[in-house]
Amino acid sequence: MKQKLMLIINPAAGRGAYKQNIGDALQVLDDGGYRTTLFYTSARAEATRFAAEQGGDYDVVACIGGDGTLSEVIAGLMRHEQRPRLAYIPMGTANDVATTLNLPKNDTVAAARRIVGGKPHPYDVGGFGDREYFAYIAGFGAFTDVSYATPQDQKKALGHLAYVLQGMASLGKIEPVHTIVEHDEGMIEADLLYGSLNNSTSVGGVVRFSDEMVSLGDGMSELVLVKDPKTVEGFGDLAASVLSQSYDSENLIILHTKKARFTFDHPVAWTRDGEAGGEHRVVELCNYHAPIEFIF
User: Fold this and answer.
1) How many other C-beta atoms lie within 10 A of the C-beta of residue 20?
2) Model's pTM, two decimal places?
3) What is the pLDDT of residue 269?
4) Torsion, CA 146, CA 161, CA 273, CA 148, rounded to 10
């Protein structure tokens, strides 16, 4: 008997490139033992609604889209007590999750083959406050607004280059934020340019962490804090540390933690998985240990 697979499609992702080979991808899934039902989104958060309301009727819930679509699907699955397995056909721009999982990008047929040949792995999910979730990152500060601040028409026309251009334009606007960060092992108070809780080896499609630093299902997330270097030399040292993946700058802090609480002097804008997460003076983040099995 074939397994039932729910495939949620974001038709805007990847500039609609999924249409070219969707038939072949569905054939691969069918040959691999899946009976697939398609659901097309037409508005933000609709993937969450589909996964929450109907995902429980399927063995596997998969999506075609970017990191934001995947994030919505995960948020929907977290509303179930008994959760179907998760799968992903990446068709976005940054594709951080696909990079972390080494999934084929913008290739529906190859990604479908990975679903058929893949195995379920335990996957941690991030908690943002009491009722919201994120797939791989919640953060604030330098460059975190690039994804949702980049106009949609530029994303469609330029792809990843649009993010790079938008990030360059934001350089002059970076201001340190006085922050108190409470984590599993203590507290840090500093003027930060950036802060995040991650479960990914790739951030923004640019910054990479080594595989040895990140385990996707261990119940721990990576807390990343970037302090204000205050000098040109300090900025250079910080950039060199990140680009070389040595992470030995005195202005860069990377810790493993299950929980993190950020407190600011004023409301600060956050992003979750590349989408706007609202402005907050206090943010509480946590790691939900392996509530989902991810096929890859």
Assistant:
1) 14
2) 0.88
3) 92
4) 40
